[in-house]
Amino acid sequence: MIPIDVIEKTAETLMDKAAIEIPDDYLEGLKAAASVEDGDLSSFVLQAMLENYEAAKQDRRAMCGDTGTPRWYVKMGNETQIEGGPIALEAALRRATANATNGVPLRPNRVHPLWRTDHDNNVGIGAPEIEYAYEPGGEWIDLITVHKGGLFGTDYRMLFPSDGIQGIKRFFLDSLVAFGKRGLACQPAIIGIGLGGCKDTCMVLGKRAACLRTVGDRNSDPKIADLELEFTELGNSIGMGAMGFVGKSMVIDTHIEVGYCHTGGMQMSVHAFCLSSRRAVARVFADGRVEHRTDPDWFTDYQRRETVEWQMPQSHEKSA
Description:
By secondary structure, the protein is α+β, with helices and mostly antiparallel strands. Helices cover 38% and strands 20% of the residues. The chain has a five-stranded mixed sheet with strand order 2-1-3-8-9, with helices on one face. Helix 1 (4-20) packs parallel to helix 4 (85-103). The longest helix is centred in the first third of the chain and has 20 residues, at 40-59. The chain is globular and about 50 Å long. The two termini are 17 Å apart.
């Protein structure tokens, strides 16, 4: 059984790491973009951000004044038991969010949509969001915190099967141009695309694609993997760079996730993570051990399974 105090303590540590430390995969992607950027203002922004990241890490302060809207992704093995059960787990994550808001500190961004009530701790009705997934075998829990920008950088459109790949490309470019020209996202960013599902799950897929995959990771479907590379190149060919200035560094990487949809439609969502790509991950075991990492490893073969029954590959059985 996993101790609840270890979960809460680990969650607070993750909130601190996500706000302050850039994941290595994204940092390397940003450096690669800076090395080829030739737009004057875009180059200036990229260099300034790289210096800011280093200063934030040295001073242990949040890398961006707007720390977004903290959210949690929780994945656990099928045999996992948590002290106090799922209610205690959610309470621990809410307490960790509130404590970190005061301790890191984070900007208290969460307010009631109508009355603008603000508890100054990023906790309220439906906040922070907590999403769950499960894996066959094992007694462990992965805690993943993401500090996602909470205003713009997201769009949705109902496409139709006849729109095809060209329609997907058009909406992708429409979204990026709008993000850049109207200041709706902080570029360059990891772009997540959700295809299919229902309207709500399409949005979930796109946000998870942006936030829960690392730079350089490719979809396990070879054709989708090719599209990811093509879309990154396409996004960097529109003449926009950092923060929408003239340049060629709009996209650090593109990730695409799909879900089966209604035969008559093809939902699509586009999500820009953030110039400050804020995520942190840890696995907590029943014996109290905690292993930190930066790769959420969310989209496993099991999460992308297509059939009714699941047969675990032998390689998974050996590592479970």
